[in-house]
Each structure stands twice: as structure tokens, then as C-alpha cells.
Design brief:
The complex is a heterodimer. In chain A, 64% of the residues lie in helices and 8% in strands. Chain A is mainly alpha-helical. Chain A has one domain: Up-down Bundle (Fumarate Reductase Cytochrome B subunit), CATH 1.20.950. In chain A, the strands form two sheets. In chain A, strands 1-4 form a two-stranded antiparallel ribbon. Chain A has a two-stranded antiparallel sheet with strand order 2-3. In chain A, α1 runs antiparallel to α3, α5 packs across α6 and α6 packs antiparallel against α8. Chain A is globular. The two termini of chain A are 24 Å apart. About 3% of the residues of chain A have low confidence. By secondary structure, chain B is an alpha+beta fold. Chain B folds into two domains: 36 residues; 212 residues, Sulfite Oxidase, Chain A, domain 2 (Alpha-Beta Complex). In chain B, 26% of the residues lie in helices and 22% in strands. The termini of chain B are far apart. The mean pLDDT of chain B is 92. The chains are: A mainly alpha, B alpha+beta.
Chain lengths: 229, 267
Amino acid sequence: MKKIQKKHSLALRWFHWINFPVLALMIWSGTLIYWAYDPYAIKIGNFTLFKFYPESFYKSLGIPFRLAEGMSWHFALMWIFTINGILYFLYTMISGEWKLLIPNKHSFKEAWNVVLHDIGFRKDTLPLRKFNGAQQIAYTTVILMGFGSLISGLAIYKPIQFSWLSWLLGGYKNARIIHFGLTIGYVFFFMIHIAQVIRAGWNNFRAMVAGFEVIDEKDSTSTISEQNV
Amino acid sequence: MKPSHPLTPEEEINIEIRRKTIKAFALFGLAGFVPFGVWKYIKNQPKTDGVENPLRNILEINCKLSKSYFSQVRLAPTFNKSEAAKKPKVNGREGLKKPIDLTEWSLKITSDYKEKKIVSLNIDQIKSLPKHEVIFEFKCIEGWSQVMHWGGARLCDLMETYKLGTRDGSILNNSDFKNLFKYVGMETPDKEYFVGIDMESALHPQTLLCYELNGKPLSQDHGFPLRLIIPVKYGVKNIKRIGNIIFTDNRPADYWAELGYDYFGGL
């Protein structure tokens, strides 16, 4: 028989979903800022593989000449991003949920098996836990990235009052590159995340919205094959 | 519709699942409107100096926080002479339309109390103040930065020597902030470019009235004959070709702050 089982707490769901509009707008306003000085590119020798960003990209999104607007949004939203991040951190610490999230010595081997499973090289079932090794690594990484964005952001926002922080990150210019690179990282994370949510299916997605998942007690192995994201 | 028979436990759980799912997604959908609502609301607000009021208010709060955290003891990191750019970047020509020469230039300084005190100085009087050099990473609000080597007189030395910046015209006492004007305003001789700077930043030991770049007199496009170098601020506050200075309690006009940037511009 089916059974309703609690999966994600209300607090956790809020922390998760607040990031969606906030990060979207922060990436947008950050791009408005970046446009004003956009020297980054991926180069092989003298050959430019990709320039951040092509003129057509800017034009199609209406990016050019909006530096001031970008700054005003970025420096308002940074507060929501930071406060949400701090509250989330405190929440995982106090609730003890961090224990489920932090990778351990088995996580890396398990993550490799998850990858093999996901690309179809392994047919066996995934571990029956809230977060498997791949998820532990991915989610811990993205939280560390968030922290990285916060401190690299501070290092370029107030590089003299926090000059020790800029120094720690290899200087002002380097801190700006780190801040930018992390943002590109979010975009990649987001794309993989969405793909995984789709393949994990409805029960998993509903859990992130409604908080519960439905498990079948008669045949409890049936949910194991369902991958949590 | 009422079921004709009592519900089986299986049916009951299915109904509960459905009810809970619909409720959660309805709330989720409603919550999804909140960011749109906030966005629309902000976009529809009147603007102050080019920024919607709610965002302008947050910029002002950020400015207050930055000001309260600001310390004159924290210095911009300095570099070796060899690291300074040989050809420092030129950016911004507002207020520099025509070249200027020393015969038509003097620095006029006004103190904004009832009987305005006006001091007029020539370049030699400024050069007679102790000379300081600073080699630091100049940071443009656009995002680029460059190590530059500047030389000139400390603004605080000028204020001390000419008894400026204090409301009662007494000699500058850096610890007595109550007797100091809140702001320093500066503008080009043609008044085309102008900046406002808080007194704490103006008194920072690295804030210089510069007449030299890389050990040579300033070129026209770097702000000849005298410009401000204030490492604790973005480049936009480092006004070139200063013609007038005013010490005041009223926030002076600021070129870029009027165009949507935050007023403080502190680093």
C-alpha cells in the first residue's frame, strides 16, 4: 500500500526555492555589471575558443549600458542571498541535516557508480538514502560555491576595507575572475540539476514542493530505483 | 459526488495524496507570483537620481553601513614603482573640453558657513605642502583596475595648513568630527564634472591632491594641473582638473550619483 513519507522540511524548501528568483536576478544584474568590462575568454594559445560574451548575446538580452541598474539590483539582492544562505547554514547545523549532506570517504566511489548508472553503464539500483554520494558531492559543492560567491563578492565590493580578503583570493582582479567563474559554475550546475530532476521524476519533484514523497510499502524496493535529486 | 461504498484504505490514501499535492502546488504557484509582484512593484516606483526608490533606499542603507565600517586606518594596498603602469589608462573627459594652462587656473576653496570663507591658491602653494606618493591599484567602477603611481599633497595637510574643513575655522583636529563639515564637494572650472565626498574619506591619509603621475607633471587628459586621487573610492570620484572645492554639510551634487550610481562609491 502507498504511504506518505516526509522528505524535505518546509524550511529547507523555502531556502531552496528562494534561491531560484534571487540567483536568476543576481546572474542577470551581474551580467549587466560584467558588460562594462568584459575581458574574459577561453583561449588556447592565441586562439579564442569562446568570448564572454559575444555581442549577439548581449544584444538579444538587452544587456548593454545598464551598469548602474545592474549595481543597484545586485547590491540589493546580495542581502537576500546572504541572509538566506546564513539561515540555511544555521538550519542544517542545528537540525543535524548536514550529516546527510557532507560527503564521506565512500561518497566518491558511490558518486562514480551513480554517474555510471546515469549514463547507462550500470543497471543496479542506487543507494536508498536521502542523498547519494553524487548528490552529497554536488550539493556540498554548490553550497561552498555560494560561500565563495559571497566572499569573492565582498572582496571586489570593498577591496580596501577587506583588503585581507582580496589578498587571500589572489588580489582584486583575481577575485573578480573567481566571482565570475563561480557564476558560470552555477549555470552548469543548474543545467545538470534540471536534467536530473526530470529523469528522477514526479515523486521526487513533488517532494521539493510539497515536502513528502509517496512510497509503496508492499514493494519497498520500487522506490529505490527512483533516484532522488 | 459521494462514493456509494465506504472508501478502502487504498482510496483514502490516494485522496489524501491528491489533496496534499494540489494544496502544495497551489501555494507554490501563488508564491511564484511574489517575485513577479516585487519586480513589477519596484519597476513602477518613481526614481531618484536614475534609480527606483526602493533600490535607491537600499543603496543608501549600504552607504550608511559602509560609512560606519570605514576606517582611516585601513589603507589601500601599495605596490612597487616597477609595477605601476607605464601608460596609465585615460577614462572620462567630462569637464576637460578645452586644454587649460596655469595662467587661467587657480584653486578656489569655499567654506559653507554664514560668512563664506574663500581661499584661492595657485599651484606653487599646493606644491609647497609636503609631497606624498601613492602607488596603488586604481579601480574603475566599470570593473577594470590598474596599478598607478601618483604624487601630490595630502588633502588633510591642505586643510590643516589653511584651517579648512572645520565649522568654526579652527585648525583641523581629526578626532573632533563634530566640528568638521560632513562633505567636501569638488568641481571642474567649467562645472561640467563634480563629485561629493564624505569627510572621513577626504581625510584618509592616502587622499591626495595630485600634480604628478609617474613622477612627471600631469597631462591634460589625466587632469592637469591638479586632480584628486582618493584610493578608497572608485575612479569616478577621482575628479580631474579641480577648479573649486567646497566644505559643506549639505550633500554636494555628484555627477555619476545623479545618473543612477550609489553616492558613496567607497571601496
